[in-house]
Specification:
With 759 residues, this protein is an alpha+beta fold. The chain is 15% helix and 35% strand. It contains 12 helices and 43 strands. A hairpin with a 5-residue loop joins strand 20 and strand 21. Helix 1 runs antiparallel to helix 12. The two termini are 29 Å apart.
Length: 759
């Protein structure tokens, strides 16, 4: 589950979106422990004689998938490089480009350059790569296996750009998180839960930094499941700026209770066990260590590891002898920024922040050369960027506006300019701004204030790649110089744009609902073509609704938006409402659901449905809801708690009782079960099952490591006990994303048929 609008969205509704190209394995079917091999459908499976907008074309062929550039590897010289495949020579390549020219500047790697035919396996496929600091070496990644949300293990090779020679990392074994040292002489990685360093420049010696790593017991240099999921991190170490030290985590998860999943691949299922702490249960004891390569000594920072604190971030400042640690109490309302410096590594608390409810961790922390720093905080009521001196004294609020900052995107030291994205001028948009370090000179990089924008900067900040989109316009990518002058277009999705125009899709209309019993709520609506104001239409709510996450965005919605258009053509009104607790409207709007997660959120959705039921163009007896993950939980809440309003619901991978979900997420918003038992009951779907009377489809993957099948099974158990009618669908060996091969096509065919039949 993902936790904040300022985080990468993990628990957010899984959709098929464009891939940047840097991590192509992420959504590949048949990889990792959580999905099995299946054939991938292609365009020939789409029946063109059924018309263009069909379920098979949407979920089977990729016909409506927008293309986008991005995920570039930026080089120190201001250029960038990308992976390519030379089909004529059957060779993977890494090509260097200039932002100002279309032609290739240099070929940094090609399989054609390798004369030793045994250096790479015959089935080698380049899946990711890293370029060393001064462009001397490349780390080639292949045979990647996804483990959980972010974690992956792979086989790595060290390639010399000058000599074209290849060396294996850890003797051709799969390892985690291999990275170059800044001095380009070493590679660090994790194997069997221990941290290793391979000295490849002179000889090929390897140092095993830790030796106590043990599956489901001790982890070194990597994080446990709940840190990975809830703090969006998996690599648990970082090189110092000079590459002579490493800071790393040690997780003692011996006291964390085990969870197991069955994988149905043989006569007897394979059992997979891992540590998963649910609400109120013990966490790993986390310690932070510094290893000095010069003297081969590792030292623990005295942070007093315990169950009831979190260390969600560790990093180096710009100083090779100073590390920064963020510490959070278990209640997650007290945050400390702590520094430790060599020699001695004594701790110094630089910054303390308190919130009466909770504080969410972001990556919005940046250190300057003098150890002053900037960091985002919602202490003003909106997430702003603050500048502090090296002792933690606040110097100024760099963005003193009533808009939420999303991410700090970079800092151009030569111009003393900060770049950031924000939900400005309204919560539906995402806009990129720049501001000077003294707080002056704020301006937008966007061409206009409509839609949503993302930017990737060259290392020298002289150029950037901007990607824009809106609700009805897929991604447009172009290169700009640092004066905002457009130099060249890169991608405009002209073919898809033309298809949208030819198909005459219904517009996505944005407005606000001002209801008497709640706050103003953002909403979008898609109406059927040839809409008639006095015709009675069924309404389908598409919902997520979780903390900090918005679905009402003026941005390209991808495959799901095409599905909404399909349903609109079938005569349905599709709406999405951002209830209280969602993002983009400041701290108070988001925190109002604290300790009662799901209560006010479902109240808002029910209130919005009651409002629509009174409109002349809505059939009040045909209002339904579809949602996934937290959205699945909301669907389940609304079909039970709101049984008099909603007559149909589809809940995919839903949480059904917060006691079943992990402790970092759940306790952040609900507190400990022992302290908030009544609200745990009041926000459980199981509490409201007696009210169920409509059509209810429950869907889950049997190998979901995130929202366990237990949630759906306990819901079904309760419905059977009360003799309630329900429908269900399960997907064997599928994780929280329920994808791979034809799985998504099957899934949305099932959901679509259910909606058409029952709503």
């Amino acid at each position: 589950m993902k936790k904040s609008a300022f985080f990468l969205l993990a628990f957010l509704l899984p959709v098929l979106v464009f891939s940047s190209g840097k991590d192509k394995n992420k959504d590949r079917p048949g990889t990792g422990i959580l999905s099995g091999p299946e054939p991938r459908p292609d365009k020939k499976d789409a029946k063109q004689d059924e018309g263009v907008l069909t379920i098979k074309n949407i979920f089977g062929s990729g016909m409506f998938s927008a293309k986008a550039k991005g995920g570039y590897t930026m080089l120190k010289n201001g250029n960038y490089c990308v992976e390519d495949y030379d089909a004529s020579n059957k060779a993977y390549e890494i090509l260097e480009y200039s932002f100002t020219k279309d032609s290739v500047v240099d070929t940094l790697f090609s399989q054609k350059f390798i004369t030793d035919t045994t250096a790479l396996p015959k089935n080698f496929a380049l899946e990711n790569f890293q370029i060393s600091e001064n462009k001397k070496y490349i780390l080639l990644q292949t045979a990647t296996q996804s483990i959980y949300r972010h974690s992956k293990k792979a086989i790595y090779y060290i390639y010399s750009i000058r000599t074209h020679k290849i060396k294996k990392v850890h003797h051709d074994k799969e390892v985690f998180y291999a990275t170059f040292s800044p001095d380009e002489s070493k590679v660090a990685y994790v194997f069997d839960n221990n941290l290793y360093i391979q000295y490849f420049l002179y000889g090929d010696s390897t140092v095993q930094v830790t030796k106590d790593g043990l599956l489901n017991n001790v982890l070194n240099g990597k994080t446990d499941w709940v840190y990975e999921e809830e703090f969006s991190m998996s690599q648990g170490y970082e090189w110092s700026p000079k590459g002579d030290k490493i800071i790393y985590y040690r997780f003692d998860e011996s006291k964390v209770k085990m969870y197991q999943l069955d994988y149905y691949d043989s006569l007897y299922p394979t059992i997979y066990k891992y540590k998963y702490p649910v609400a109120g249960e013990d966490n790993s004891k986390v310690s932070v260590w510094v290893y000095d390569l010069n003297v081969d000594i590792k030292r623990k920072l005295e942070l007093h590891e315990e169950n009831d604190q979190y260390i969600p971030r560790i990093s180096w400042t710009k100083d090779d002898n100073t590390v920064a640690v963020e510490r959070l109490n278990r209640q997650q309302n007290n945050l400390e920024l702590i520094e430790a410096s060599s020699p001695g590594w004594k701790l110094k608390t630089v910054l303390k922040e308190h919130d009466n409810d909770y504080i969410e961790i972001t990556d919005n922390l940046y250190f300057f050369d003098d150890n002053s720093f900037m960091m985002s905080s919602s202490k003003s009521g909106f997430n702003n960027i603050y500048l502090y001196d090296h002792d933690g004294k606040e110097l100024r609020n760099l963005t003193p506006y009533r808009f939420d900052i999303e991410n700090i995107l970079g800092y151009d030291d030569s111009a003393k300019t900060i770049f950031y994205s924000a939900k400005e001028p309204n919560p539906r948009t995402s806009t990129v701004f720049q501001v000077n370090l003294d707080g002056t000179g704020k301006k937008t990089l966007n061409d206009d204030e409509k839609g949503s924008t993302s930017v990737e900067f060259a290392s020298d900040y002289k150029h950037y790649l901007m990607t824009t989109s809106s609700a009805m316009v897929p991604y447009v990518c172009a290169v700009y110089d640092n004066n905002g002058k457009k130099l060249k277009g890169v991608e405009d999705n002209a073919e898809l744009n033309q298809t949208i125009k030819n198909e005459k899709f219904s517009p996505k209309e944005f407005f606000d609902l001002n209801l008497a019993d709640t706050e103003s709520l953002s909403i979008w609506m898609i109406k059927p073509p040839h809409f008639k104001k006095h015709h009675k239409y069924p309404v389908l709510f598409s919902i997520y609704g979780g903390p900090g996450i918005q679905t009402v965005n003026d941005a390209w919605g991808g495959t799901l938006d095409m599905w909404y258009q399909y349903l609109a053509r079938k005569g349905y009104i599709i709406v999405s409402v951002d209830n209280r607790g969602t993002g983009g409207k400041g701290r108070d709007f988001k925190h109002t659901t604290y300790l009662k997660l799901g209560q006010k959120e479902s109240d808002d959705q029910i209130a919005a449905a009651k409002y629509l039921a009174k409109q002349d163009y809505v059939d009040p007896k045909r209002i339904g809801m579809y949602g996934w993950s937290f959205g699945g939980y909301m669907s389940a809440m609304c079909i039970t708690k709101g049984a008099d309003v909603f007559n149909t619901a589809v809940a995919v991978a839903p949480v059904t009782d917060w006691r079943y979900y992990d402790n970092i997420y759940t306790e952040r918003y609900m507190g400990l079960p022992k302290d908030n038992s009544d609200n745990y009951d009041a926000t459980s779907v199981l509490t409201y099952v007696p009210k169920l009377k409509g059509n209810f489809l429950v869907i889950f993957g049997t190998y979901d490591d995130n929202v366990h099948p237990q949630n759906s099974i306990m819901l079904v158990k309760k419905m059977v006990e009360l003799n309630k009618k329900y429908d269900s669908e399960f997907y064997p060996n599928k994780n929280h994303g329920i994808y791979g091969g034809y799985t998504r096509l099957h899934l949305y065919t099932r959901i679509t048929d259910y909606i058409l039949e029952h709503l």
